[in-house]
Structures are given as structure tokens and as C-alpha cells.
């Protein structure tokens, strides 16, 4: 059989999508790229897989002094059972969900309103206010922890959901990103809606928001991830275990497991799971979001 | 406070040509901006000035009345060796981690850009750690770094790099070992974000550019050096500034993994502020320290700001 016939035969038996590509022989470079990429990806996943593997072993199998192996010999969900029975992790997860939801919803509402105001209106002192907010891009929240801590306690919000959430809502960068996006939306539709007698809020809701889906999703997802993973602020504010968020709670008990590594890693897996699942579901949006935030 | 200042409504409206009728000066827009501005004034502008005020007082976490002490805190901060050491450690961390976080991100992005058929899996693998909470990252890596029975030492011994009788101590290892351990953990954790920025930038490059140079006989290395990397310049500038700002604020990993040890080798700026304020109860002094860091971050942020604003035109 000649090479051409071989290819034709292969092409005939292959599904259509593959057929086109069969004509391109993989070059040495391409093989190297795929092998290197796969190797690095597996290397990158190893720490998470090692945590998962350890968490599914019996405690005696996982502990120090045992030989290291990846596939559990004696599968066990004992670590998870103990943690879930104790219930702390569920409390912290609930706290994190409440705090992150407050932060995300408020950020989206406040930043969208502000961005729309800056994008579509002229009003007294507009440039001064916008300039002041843009200057806030440069203020690092971590350098403000001390006066913020004092302020939140003075407002009697220490150890409450509001004390945890509200200081995280101030996100000048989101106003900036949304304004830039709104600026690029043509005004024609709004003019039409205005002629129909729609008010400003109705225009925002019916005209602007429907075409802003991806950017709103990106802002929302990043705010949620950022708030969920915030560590220093919740650690200062939530000193009572019942008010701790997941990262703070996990850290508070991390030392307490001692040599119970299966349990420690079960705790880590439970802690990583919620956002990993959200990430897998919204992967496309998140990737587009990074691209949009970084480049547009 | 600047936010609440009402300037006479002259500049914006008057400079605009009259035919730009889409915008009319009115109070309506202010109502849209007001809720955010109020939050902003309360939780960002006010604490910024409050912190500055505290830095001139001997305010304490114990709640006793504070009194004005002028520049005493500032004078002490500039003469505080522990504060300088913390800044130095922050700089060391930044200098060690930033190049890796930039170069590896480019390499990963180039690989994933070429290996399109596996794009989904590769993006997932490289970005997934970024969404994991810091306390999970530190739990897993503390377990990996465990001198006895940890994964890292196990493989180093398996490949004969390390003698089993003298296991390496990582997280309390002296002479930079602890710092490197934290750097490696941080690279694993945060590389995904830079990687995605580069990948997105690569995808905006017109493939025709490469075709033209291929016809001219350029090999992949020449293409990389003379086409790809120059086109990534803007992204690299942004990644480096974001990285510098993030590194100056570093705290979580050190606080949890090394506690600043050994011998304060990994005690960074925010950690020392935390110690001064929340363990030493010296709010006034910690505020002065915060402001030193604040000014440093401000300098870097000016670069970031210029990058962002250049994008507007």
C-alpha cells in the first residue's frame, strides 16, 4: 500500500473531525510540546492529588513512618466522617458562603450603579469623585488593617457578618473595569428606550445589563473567590470559632490534628472542594474573565 | 474628605462642546455614584486618614486614652532594625519569586498555546491551585515538606539526592531554605493567574505574523525572540507590577507555614505590623509602620496606574 492509500484508508475509517487533521503529520516539536505540557500539568496537580490520596487512607496507613504510596491499600473515609460529625467545617463553609455572598452582591450592585453613573452622566464634582476613587486603586487593604479594625469595632460590627463583609466591598478596580465596559456600549438603544419613556434604572436593567453578562460574571466570580479566600481580615475579626470563615477555621484547627494526617488532608480537601467545583463549572467564564480584566 | 466635597459644577460641563447633548449636567448621576462613594469614604478614605493620625499618637489596643506624641513613632520606625529586616525579607521574597512567576508563566502559556487539543485540561491543571484557600495550600505543603515522611524528602532520597539519615528541614531551614520553601509554595499557588494573562495575550496575536516570518525562514526560537516576546511586553509589564504589589503585601503563607522563622528570616513587613499592633498592642507604632509600607506600595502602584490609564486610549 502506498502512503497515499494508507492515509486514505485511515481517513475513511476515522470520524470526520479527525480526518482533516490526519493530513498533518505531528512534527517532533509538537510531540515535545505535548509531552512537556502533560508532564508539567501532572506535576502541578500532584500536591492536590497527594492530599486527596492521603485523605482516603486509614490513619495508620497515612501517618509518619509509613512508606509512601499513592494508591490507598485500605480505602477509608474515616477522616471525613470524623470532621463532618464534628460539624465545624460545615459551619465555616456556611459562614464563608454568607460573607462572600454579601460581598459579591453588594460589590456588583454598588459598583454597577457607580460605573453607570460615571459612564452616562455629568454631575457636579464628577471628576473629583472619580479621581478620588481611582486613587483608591493604590491603597493596599493590608496597610489599613489597623484603623479598619478600630473602625469596625467602633461601629460594633466586630465578630459579625457585617464586620467581616462590609470592608471588603470597597473595590475601586471593579468600578473602573465596569465603567470601561459601559463606555463601549453604544448609546442608540438607550435613546430608543428613553423615547419610550423608560427611567434610568429601567434602562440600566433592561438595556445595559443584558449585554454586560460576561463582564458581570467575571467581576462577580473574582469578587467571590477573593472574598472566600481572604485570610488576614477574617482572622482579625472572627475570633469566635462559630463566626470563622473556612480559611480561618481550617488554619485554627490545622495544628490540632497532630499526627493525624488522613484527617488533616480530609480537612484540606473539604476546604478546597467548594471553589474547585465552582471553578470547574465556570471555567470558561473565569478564563475569559482574566483575559478581559487584564487586556481590555 | 474629598469624596463629599462639592466643587462648583464648572469644569466638566463647560469644557464640553455644546453639541455633545448626550450628557447634561444634573444631579441624577450623583445618586448612582453615591452608595459606592459612601462605602468608599467610610471604609477606605476615612481609615487611610485615621491611620495617619494614629501614627502620631501612642494609641494602644488596650483602649486607654491616646495622646499626641508627634514624630516619635516615625523616628522609632526608621531606627527599628526589626522593621528594616522585615522589609529586607519582603524584598528577598519579591526578588526570588517574581522572576520565576513571570518566566514560568510565559513557558506554560507558550506550551498551552501550542498544545491546543489539550487546552481544557492544561488550563484546569495550571489554574486550579489559584482558587484553593491559603490555609489549604499551607496544610498540603506543610505535609509535603515534612522532614520525616514528607513527599519531597521521600523523592529526594529515592533519587539519591538526599541521605536518608539526614532529612532536610524545609520550613524552619536556615540560610534561605525556609524562604525558598515558601517561594516554591507561592509559585505553585499563584502562577495560574499570570499564566492566564499570558495565554490570553498570546491568543490575540495574529497568526499571519508567524506565517510571514516562516516563509522568510525564521525558526521557532527566532520567532519567539523577535515576534512573540516583544508583543508580550505590555502583559509582562502588567504582570510584574501586579506581582510586585502582591509580594509587598505578602503575609498569609509566612504567617501560617513558618511563623516568621527561623530566626525571623521569613518575617515580612505585614507580619511585623501585625506583631506590633495585635501582639504588642501598639496601634500608633504599627500605624507608622503601615505607612512606610503604604508609601512603598504607592510608588509601585503609580506604575500600575500608568499602565491602566494608557490602555484607555
UniProtKB/TrEMBL annotation, chain A:
It comes from Glycomyces paridis. Signal peptide: none annotated. It is a multi-pass membrane protein. Pfam families: BPD_transp_1 (PF00528). It is found in: Cell membrane. Keywords: Cell membrane, Membrane, Transmembrane, Transmembrane helix, Transport. GO terms for cellular component: plasma membrane. This is Carbohydrate ABC transporter permease. It comes from the Bacteria. Residues 93-282 form the ABC transmembrane type-1 domain. The chain crosses the membrane at residues 28-50, 92-116, 128-149, 161-182, 203-225, 260-282. Belongs to the binding-protein-dependent transport system permease family. GO terms for biological process: transmembrane transport.
UniProtKB/TrEMBL annotation, chain B:
GO terms for biological process: transmembrane transport. GO terms for cellular component: plasma membrane. The keyword Repressor does not apply. It comes from the Bacteria. InterPro entries: ABC_transporter_permease, MetI-like, MetI-like_sf. Residues 87-304 form the ABC transmembrane type-1 domain. The chain crosses the membrane at residues 30-54, 91-112, 124-144, 177-200, 288-308. It holds the Pfam family BPD_transp_1. It is a multi-pass membrane protein. The keyword Oxidoreductase does not apply. Residues 1-20 are annotated as: Disordered. Keywords: Cell membrane, Membrane, Transmembrane, Transmembrane helix, Transport. It is found in: Cell membrane. Belongs to the binding-protein-dependent transport system permease family. PANTHER family: ABC TRANSPORTER PERMEASE PROTEIN (PTHR30193), DIACETYLCHITOBIOSE UPTAKE SYSTEM PERMEASE PROTEIN NGCF (PTHR30193:SF41). This is Sugar ABC transporter permease. The lineage of its organism: Bacteria, Bacillati, Actinomycetota, Actinomycetes, Glycomycetales.
Amino acid at each position: 500500500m502506498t502512503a497515499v492509500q494508507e492515509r486514505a484508508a485511515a481517513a475513511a475509517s476515522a470520524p470526520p473531525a479527525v480526518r482533516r487533521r490526519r493530513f498533518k503529520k505531528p512534527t517532533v516539536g509538537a510531540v515535545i510540546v505535548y509531552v512537556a505540557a502533560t508532564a508539567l500539568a501532572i506535576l502541578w496537580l500532584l500536591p492536590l492529588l497527594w492530599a486527596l490520596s492521603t485523605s482516603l487512607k486509614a490513619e495508620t496507613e497515612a501517618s509518619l513512618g509509613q512508606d509512601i504510596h499513592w494508591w490507598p491499600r485500605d480505602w477509608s473515609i474515616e477522616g471525613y466522617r470524623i470532621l463532618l460529625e464534628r460539624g465545624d467545617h460545615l459551619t465555616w463553609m456556611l459562614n464563608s458562603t454568607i460573607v462572600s455572598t454579601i460581598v459579591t452582591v453588594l460589590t456588583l450592585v454598588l459598583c454597577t450603579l457607580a460605573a453607570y453613573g460615571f459612564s452616562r452622566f455629568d454631575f457636579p464634582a464628577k471628576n473629583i469623585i472619580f479621581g478620588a476613587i481611582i486613587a483608591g486603586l493604590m491603597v493596599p487593604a493590608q496597610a489599613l488593617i489597623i484603623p479598619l479594625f478600630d473602625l469596625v469595632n467602633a461601629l460594633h460590627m466586630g465578630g459579625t457578618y457585617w464586620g467581616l463583609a462590609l470592608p471588603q466591598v470597597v473595590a475601586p478596580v471593579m468600578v473602573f473595569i465596569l465603567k470601561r465596559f459601559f463606555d463601549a456600549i453604544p448609546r442608540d438603544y438607550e435613546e430608543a428606550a428613553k423615547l419610550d419613556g423608560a427611567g434610568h434604572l429601567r434602562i440600566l436593567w433592561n438595556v445595559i445589563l443584558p449585554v454586560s453578562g460576561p463582564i458581570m460574571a467575571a467581576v462577580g466570580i473574582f469578587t467571590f473567590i477573593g472574598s472566600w479566600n481572604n485570610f488576614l481580615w477574617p482572622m482579625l475579626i472572627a475570633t469566635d470559632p462559630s463566626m470563622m470563615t473556612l480559611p480561618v477555621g481550617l488554619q485554627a484547627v490545622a495544628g490540632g490534628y497532630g499526627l493525624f494526617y488522613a484527617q488533616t488532608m480530609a480537612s484540606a480537601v473539604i476546604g478546597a472542594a467548594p471553589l474547585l467545583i465552582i471553578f470547574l463549572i465556570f471555567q470558561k467564564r473565569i478564563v475569559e474573565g482574566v483575559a478581559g480584566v487584564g487586556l481590555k | 474628605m474629598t469624596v463629599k466635597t462639592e466643587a462648583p459644577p464648572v469644569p466638566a460641563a463647560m469644557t464640553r462642546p455644546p453639541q455633545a447633548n448626550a450628557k447634561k449636567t444634573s444631579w441624577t448621576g450623583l445618586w448612582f455614584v453615591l452608595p459606592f462613594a459612601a462605602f468608599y469614604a467610610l471604609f477606605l478614605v476615612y481609615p487611610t486618614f485615621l491611620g495617619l493620625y494614629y501614627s502620631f499618637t501612642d494609641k494602644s489596643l488596650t483602649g486607654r486614652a491616646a495622646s499626641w506624641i508627634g514624630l516619635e513613632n516615625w523616628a522609632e520606625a526608621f531606627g527599628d532594625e526589626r522593621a528594616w529586616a522585615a522589609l529586607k525579607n519582603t524584598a528577598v521574597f519579591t526578588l526570588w519569586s517574581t522572576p520565576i512567576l513571570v518566566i514560568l508563566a510565559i513557558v506554560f502559556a507558550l506550551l498551552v498555546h501550542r498544545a491546543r487539543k489539550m487546552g481544557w485540561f492544561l488550563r484546569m491543571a495550571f489554574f486550579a491551585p489559584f482558587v484553593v484557600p491559603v490555609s489549604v495550600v499551607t496544610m498540603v505543603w506543610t505535609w509535603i515538606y515534612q522532614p520525616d515522611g514528607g513527599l519531597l524528602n521521600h523523592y529526594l532520597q529515592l533519587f539519591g539526592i538526599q541521605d536518608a539519615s539526614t532529612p532536610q528541614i524545609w520550613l524552619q531551614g536556615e540560610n534561605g531554605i525556609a524562604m525558598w520553601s515558601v517561594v516554591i509554595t507561592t509559585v505553585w499557588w499563584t502562577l495560574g493567574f499570570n499564566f492566564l494573562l499570558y495565554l490570553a495575550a498570546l491568543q490575540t496575536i495574529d497568526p499571519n505574523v508567524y506565517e510571514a516570518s516562516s516563509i522568510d525562514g525564521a525558526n521557532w526560537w527566532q520567532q519567539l525572540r523577535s515576534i512573540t516576546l516583544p508583543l508580550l511586553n505590555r502583559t509582562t509589564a502588567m504582570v510584574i507590577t501586579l506581582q510586585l504589589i502582591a509580594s509587598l503585601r505578602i503575609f498569609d503563607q509566612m504567617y501560617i507555614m513558618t511563623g516568621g522563622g527561623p530566626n525571623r528570616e521569613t518575617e515580612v513587613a505585614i507580619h511585623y505590623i501585625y506583631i506590633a499592633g495585635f501582639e504588642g498592642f501598639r496601634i500608633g507604632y504599627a500605624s507608622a509602620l503601615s505607612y512606610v509600607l503604604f508609601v512603598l506600595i504607592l510608588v509601585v502602584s503609580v506604575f500600575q496606574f500608568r499602565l491602566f490609564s494608557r490602555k484607555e486610549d
